[in-house]
Amino acid sequence: MRIRHGIAACAVAAIAAAAAGIGFAAPKPFPQLAQRASGAPVDVVLALGVDVSYSMDPEEQALQREGYIAAITSPEFMRALRQGMHAKVAMTYYEWAGSHHTEVIVPWRVVDNPETADAFVADIARARYTRASRTSVSSALLFGAALIEGSGYQGLRRVIDISGDGVNNNGPLVTDARDEVLAKGITINGLPIILKRPTRSTFDIENLDIYFEDCVIGGPGAFVIPVKAREQFKEAIRTKLVLEIAGRTPEPRVIPAEGRKPRISCTIGEQIWQQRWGN
After folding, report:
1. pLDDT (average), residues 176-198
2. Residue 181 φ/ψ, nearest 5 degrees
3. What average pLDDT does the segment 239-249 reach?
4. Fewer CB atoms inside 10 Å of the end CB: C or N, the chain?
């Protein structure tokens, strides 16, 4: 994957250096929402929510960041951006774990050219690494929706892009949060990370992509792109962002938001937690 321009290349170098000796900081308390922006019209208002729970190992966290850096600075992303009515997108990048941990890493920015893309990813690259306990997909969705509602940007589409490697085991029920977000006219897309085989000591499940399809995503054209191998990170993230910016859906993964019986329990994470810890 080619990374365009010097700033993006330096960003990836920072990721690599961090991955070689990551020092994880203690999780922060629930942060204040990003300040309201100018209200400029954009094609998409996009909140990127990235999992930093303890189930994400240091290499996976570094791969996630590198994947977003490569995607946002890719020629494919820029081409999709230029095809929009306004040729610009408002984006924010936040990290999440349990309901006690949601943190804005890059506040709202308009990305409309290679220079603004470089500036966005440079802030991702220099942010410290953080990990925290539990997995609250529901809180991540509600936080992303609050960010979008408070952004001040007027977008033709509003999207939460949620990535994660586990099921909801903390906070509100994921289906309740999903429905609340969809009621605001926000689409939810997913990037389930399926790299580990489930064991008795983890909360990983075999069919995380099905869980995301049935319990997490929703809205017009909502889709899931799973990552099942480490070498797929960059391509999967780039494909997902390009589709979101262009307003398209990958044909093989079209998932109706309604009218289909779930294939998996949407409370499986809470059930596993109750069986193991009893609270």
Report:
1. 92
2. -70, -45
3. 89
4. C
Beta strands in the chain (DSSP E): 41-51, 89-96, 102-111, 154-164, 187-192
Task: For 12-35, write each residue's pLDDT tens digit.
Answer: 344 444 444 433 333 333 334 444
Alpha-carbon distances of 160 from 198, 199, 238, rounded to whole Å:
27, 30, 15
Tokens of 240: 């997902």
Q: Please name the amino acid found at residue 29.
A: P
- Residue 102, class by beta-carbon neighbours within 10 Å (0-12 exposed, 13-18 middle, 19+ buried)? buried
For residue 89, list its beta bridge partners. Answer: 44, 111
Q: Using pLDDT thresholds of 50, 70 and 90, give the confidence band for residue 247.
A: confident
Look-up: residue for tokens 């961090």?
18
Pairing of strands 89-96, 102-111: antiparallel
List the structure tokens of 64: 């996630």
Strand partners, 48: 93, 161
**Does residue 256 surpass a pLDDT of 60?**
no
The conformation of residue 61, written as its DSSP 8-state character, comes to H
Enumerate the H helices of 73-132 as residue ranges.
75-82, 114-126
Give the separation between CA 254 and CA 234, rounded to whole angstroms.
21
Side chain identity at 61, as an amino acid letter?
Q
**CA–CA gap between residue 61 and residue 64 (Å, rounded):** 5
